[in-house]
Amino acid sequence: MRRTLCFVVLALLMGPITGSLAIESQQTDWQAVDATGLQWMPRGFSEDVPFQADAVWLSDQTPWWERTALDQNRNSIHDSLETFVGITGIGLSYGVDVSSHHLAQLEEMNLTVVDVIEAVDAILLGQINASIVFELAGLDDVVMVERYGSLVFYGDIQTPAVKARNSSFYPMGAWDLGFTGANVNIAMVDTGVDNEHPGLSEKFVAGYDAVCYTPSDPICILAGGGFRETDGTFDPDDGNQHGTACMGMAAATGIDASGAQTDFYGAAPDADLIDVRIGTDLGAGPFENYVIEQEFYESAMNGLQWIIDNKDTAWQGADEESYGIDIISLSWGITSHESGGSDGEDMHSRILNEAMEAGVVVSAAAGNDGPDNDGLSGMGSSSLSITVGATDDKNTIDRSDDTVASYSSRGERRDNGDGNPLNELKPEVSAPGTNIVQAEGCVTSGGCNNFIGGDAADNGYTGRGSGTSYAAPAVSGILAMMIEANPDLSTAEMKEILKLTAERRGEASAPDVDPFWNRDFGWGMVDAYEAVNLALYLGQQNLTGSVDVFSQVHITNSSVNASTGLHEIRGLAWGQAGSISAVEYRIDDGAWMEATYETVEGGLAALERFEWVIALDAGQLAEGNRTVEIRGLNNEGTPSLPVFTSLLGTGDGQANGGALGVDLVTLSAFLVLLILLGLLVQGARIDSPQQLGSVQETGAVDAVLVTEEAPLETQPKKAGKRKKS
Prior knowledge:
The protein is an alpha+beta fold. It folds into four domains: 1-30 and 660-685; 38-57 and 549-649, Immunoglobulin-like; 71-147, 2-Layer Sandwich (Alpha-Beta Plaits), CATH 3.30.70; 151-531, 3-Layer(aba) Sandwich (Rossmann fold). The chain is built from 15 helices and 27 strands. Strands 9, 10, 11, 12, 14, 15, 16 and 17 form an eight-stranded mixed sheet that branches. Strands 1, 2, 3, 20, 21, 24 and 25 form a seven-stranded antiparallel sheet that branches. Strands 5-6-4-7 form a four-stranded antiparallel sheet.
């Protein structure tokens, strides 16, 4: 009995010591941030956010023409023009608004102005002799003599693969959120659209022929149409098939000529059409012969200017919610004559920047030059627009087997000399573009011909085509759903949402600039559901228009640390245009709290990342799934786009990792009390003191202790053992 009592006393004395040892061990690597023990901080981290230096390019005011790669010797002439001999398409860019004085100077040179592109302070001169380019460069306010490029045109599985429509693989799609692009206008700038097609009927809101707006155009006269109205009332047809197919990728309803519903939906089947034709009645693109190549360059610029001018137009016969233009969809590019592609400073790239800044979001195809391209064409090189690469979906909805399409042009874009490496990261996202079923336009191959009065009303969905041409309009449809969900989104917010919510693929191609961008996939495969969901959330939280798209906060891991029991959420943060002043989180819309940060000696360079961690004791949270929202704040307190994760609250009121030492103290005391209670009971039942030390009787005590929590089926056996004693 004395031996047992000594054991009891020793246990009582050692219990607190054991607990103390556990607490000390825990504090060696972790420290409680708050009094409740909810949040913990690992060793090497602090509550002070690392300082990040400003990016030097933010203060650089050098104008584009003094740094562009298109003019290496800085003589205001595209380099390719200096050695060109003969007739070619030429345009002039000015450093100021184009004025009557500038037009008069050209008239004195007996030059005819084809068009003035106000958005980029440019004039198109058409086909002229390159021998006068040096004289043109000397005209007042001319900052660049540019050479025309050539237009190059670059879709059942696609829509569920981007998670617009739900499927067995992805039970939730963007449509399940209640958005299908209703009352959102997509300007399909292409070869025209045969909107009589059963899958595109009743979508036409307005249209414009960007070639036949000039009464004297011989091609238009030859086609029998002459001048076409410029107020949006003209409805172009498709002389090629390309434009109809691309609009189908964006917004087809899937209805065929019989009225039956097929699976050949566009991403936003309720979106509407602004039909801007850049081809002529005689055809367009690489599939048709056309009379003068320059017409397509000029019509492209004219069509884009018309869109900017009419972005808020109240269209005749349209309801108010269908006014204006929301999206530009471009499934073509313009070649650059300088080796290495465009640097985004040519006039056709700059006009897309203007459209984005005017509030019309642009989805542009990356191009079909394959993995060995050296830079991207114009349109795909625009600094502000959304450039889309193509994936091969292997004819399955399952995204896990998707690869980059062999033909898809890869990044980076050619450096424009502004010191900012971020705008060279093209494409932004990728989408399925391989082996896509198309809405069939009314061309000869389709069994009808627009030129002799036919239309596409009896057409269906035919063939399978491939190209970034078909990837870009899928993203246009996703943008339409985002706008329907949150009409107040800025174009920059839309672009950043697509990047943030994309499914990342491939290793980082420029890790010093961004840890997630890949030259094949961009920031990843576009995810319609997540993009629309985040757009909706910003509206619900009244955050639209007040988000800093340059503040980057990303989750890299969210899991339970097996050694501590803490749920650790780790990530990276940095500023693309300034510093991050804090990384904050909240649980289930509760109060905002701050993460902890790695300690960085000497501060961070521009674009350099720092690690943050949020370590939570799930035992302090109510039972069930808890949503954790995380955001960054810039120096002005403006939040970044939020990121989300979840954890399982245990709701038992016990600390898991951080309060491990306290648990041991409690457990030690509890065990001692149980042992003491058992000894007292045993002492009361045993007659012979000398039996107390036997192994058999010790086993009996253990049995008694176990019996209190034993399953029912074990009770009879243990009761029998008690009778035997």
